[in-house]
Amino acid sequence: MKTQNQSEKWQITYVTPIYGGWDLLVECKFNNLEDLDEIVSFCRTDSELSQWIEATTTLISTKKNYK
User: pLDDT for 23-55, tens place per residue?
Assistant: First the structure.
């Protein structure tokens, strides 16, 4: 999924609703932590997304040999 304001530095690769303390899980692909800051800032400030987002929690994980 790509948005019109998004650069080629990052990409949303997976989204799914979940149950419990959070409502949505979003997986993103990015190259460095500055890109992660850009992703989170985009979600919090985009005029359409920010209407739906009340709060965010950011967790980082890695995949060995991720292609």
Answer: 888 888 888 888 888 888 888 899 998 888 888
**42 in a domain, yes or no?**
yes
Domain residues for 43? 10-51
Q: How far apart are CA 26 and CA 14, in angstroms?
A: 6
The answer to whether position 43 is within a domain reads yes
Which residue type, as a one-letter code, is found at position 39?
I
Q: Which residues contact 17 (CB under 8 A, 6 or more apart)?
A: 23, 24, 25
Measured in whole angstroms, how far is the alpha carbon of residue 9 from the centre of its chain?
A: 12
> How many domains is the chain built from?
1
Please state, in angstroms and rounded to a whole number, the distance separating the CA atoms of residues 2 and 67.
19
